[in-house]
Structure formats: C-alpha cells, structure tokens
Amino acid sequence: MVSRKLPSSVESKGIHEVDIHVGSRVRLRRRILGISQTKLGDALGLTFQQIQKYENGSNRISASRLFEISQILSVEPEFFFLGLPTYGTSSTGTDQPVDPDEQGITQSDPEIYRSGETLAFVRAYYLIRDKLVRTRVFKLVKSLGNEDDGD
Questions:
Q1: Residues 10-29, buried b or exposed e (16+ Cβ, 10 A)?
Q2: Residue 105: which of 126, 130, 132, 89 has the closest Cα?
Q3: Distance (Å) of CA 53 to CA 13, 68, 119
Q4: Is the pTM higher than 0.70?
Q5: String of b and e for 64-76 (b: at least 16 CB within 10 Å)?
Q6: What is the pLDDT of residues 44-64, one digit of tens each?
Q7: DSSP characters for 64-131?
Q8: Is residue 8 pLDDT above 50, yes or no?
Q9: 4 three-class SS
Q10: Could you state, in order of their start, the residue ranges of all structural domains in the chain?
Q11: Structural contact between residues 6 and 96, judged by C-beta atoms closer than 8 angstroms
C-alpha cells in the first residue's frame, strides 16, 4: 500500500495510520453486513458516536474490544489488519506485494468499497449458501474481470 499524506487535522491529533486502517476495515465489514453504527454500538454497549470514532481512527480499539467486534461481525481479528502496510521487511525477508486472493480485500482503490453497488454485490454473494456455487460465482466474476479491455 502506498503511504498517503494524512490531513493536517489528523496529524495534529496524533491519529496513527494503523488506527485509521483498522477503523476503515470495521466500517467496511459493518457495511457489507448491513449493520448500522447504532446496532453495532448496542451489541457492544456503546453509542453510535463511539463507533464513529473507532471507524475514523480518532479512538483506538483495544485488543479485547477488537475481538468482540470480530465476533459480532463474523470475521477473524486479523481481518482488520489485512492490507496494512508493513514497516521494514516481511517475515519472508522480501517486500513483495501481497496477493489479494490470499489476503482478502485490498485497499488499492478505497472508493470502490464505498460504492452501494459493491456492497450490494458482496451481500448477495454471501447470501449464496452453497459453498461450491459461491466458489463458482467467484471464479466466474474473477475471469470476467481479467478480460482484455480491447473488445
């Protein structure tokens, strides 16, 4: 992931890029599932304003709270760290790009994940109960996305 310049208001508040990334992943998963900030807050015993602060990174999410959120949003806790830039070298000793097929949703174009169409597509995809059918749909969509643009 390319480092981005944070707005001066973010820099002056001392908000860490990791907190912003984790919060954006909470927002992404919550929206994919169609859960409001209020409903997530209720499940955690918090207000929707606290969820907003978590999602924009202005308040850090503790490890125990992140675990609770992962349970409510039905993902493993590491989901919130996928796509996070690494500092230094990776465990393999190389700085190779991460394969999005192995690591989940990437942050290559964050706007695509805010699109109503994208969220509706992902919700519909996860409503397919048969794992084999879901795998076939995934392979179909992936193959269509790999077509040449020169048609």
A1: beeeebebebbbbbbbbbbb
A2: 126
A3: 13, 16, 22
A4: no
A5: eebebbbebbebe
A6: 999 999 999 999 999 999 999
A7: HHHHHHHHHTTS-GGGGGTTPPPSS--TTS--PPPPHHHH-S--SSGGGGT-HHHHHHHHHHHH---H
A8: no
A9: coil
A10: 7-86, 108-151
A11: no
80 pLDDT tier (thresholds 50, 70, 90): very high
Residue 139 to residues 7, 32, 108, 147: CA-CA distances in angstroms?
39, 20, 20, 13
Phi then psi dihedrals of residue 82, to 5 deg? -60, 135
In one letter, which amino acid is 103? Q
Report CA-CA distances (Å) from 74 to 50, 108, 138.
20, 24, 20
63, amino acid identity: A
Write the CA distances from 127 to 19, 33, 67, 76, 110, integer angstroms: 30, 10, 24, 19, 24
Given phi > 0 = left and psi -120 to 50 = alpha, else beta, which region is 88?
left
Q: Answer yes or no: CATH 1.10.260.40 is held by domain 7-86.
A: yes
Quick check: 103 and 20 in contact, CB under 8 A? no
